[in-house]
Amino acid sequence: MMLPKRLIFGLISLHLMIGCTGFNEMCKASVGRRWACPPPWIEWGGKCYTSIMEHLSWSEAKDECTKIGSVLVAPRSQEETDFLMQLLPPEFWINCNDIVEEGTWKCQDGTDEVGFRNWDPVNSEPNNARGNENCAVTTSAVGEWNDMPCDWQRAAICKAATSLRQDCTF
Ligand SMILES: [Ca+2]
Ligand SMILES: [Ca+2]
After folding, report:
1. How many other CB atoms are found less than 10 A from the CB of residue 52?
2. Which parts of the sequence belong to the C-type lectin domain (predicted)?
3. Pairing with 154, which of 2, 62, 78, 138 sits 20 to 30 Å away (CA)?
């Protein structure tokens, strides 16, 4: 049986329309859950994460995260660290520093103070080598930390709220 071309186009359009409507309904139903992070962000623990592969100084890395609506990551647990190491092993900046007072480390997840510490014990970190190490970087496959000069250049991971997600276009 030969169907008129116009009818075939009509049927295809109708099919696409139904398909799209179905997708949007699914999308609306999953707001804040399944698709909470737009690509290339990856969701973990209700937050969105992305890597900055370009090697930057610690403050540049912080600024880059801010520019894209996020913060430089400061891991709160070994579980979060394990996740981060899958994204970007083994060395990346974290938001911990002792810039204000030598030896008093401040770690911040956005505006929250973070109590978790994960210094590399084997190399006695933080060791403030040459009196000039005030920013923290992950240093091993298990994500232990080392203090390094803040102007050295490393990769970074940014962390954002899942509310970054605003519509159903991804
Ligand atoms: Ca220091
Ligand atoms: Ca060090």
Report:
1. 20
2. 44-159
3. 78
Model pTM score: 0.76
Ligand 2 centroid–CA 118 distance in Å is 13
* Ligand 1 center to 160 CA (angstroms): 27
Q: Which residue from 147, 159, 156 is spatially nearest to 53, judged by alpha carbons?
A: 156
Alpha carbon distance 147, 129 (integer Å)? 8
pLDDT above 60 (res 165): no
pLDDT digits (tens, 9 = 90+) for 84-103: 999 987 899 999 999 999 99
List helix spans (H) across 30-160: 58-67, 78-87
Q: Which helix (H) or strand (E) covers residue 24, if one does?
A: helix 5-29
For residue 131, give the ligand nearest its CA. 1
- Nearest ligand (C-alpha, residue 104): 1
For the chain, domain boundaries: 1-30, 42-163
Q: 115-146 pLDDT, tens per residue?
A: 999 999 999 999 999 999 999 999 988 899 99
Alpha-carbon span 4 to 20, nearest angstrom: 25
Task: Compute, in angstroms, the gap from residue 111 CA to the centroid of ligand 2.
Answer: 25
Please say whether the structural domain 42-163 has been given the CATH code 3.10.100.10: yes
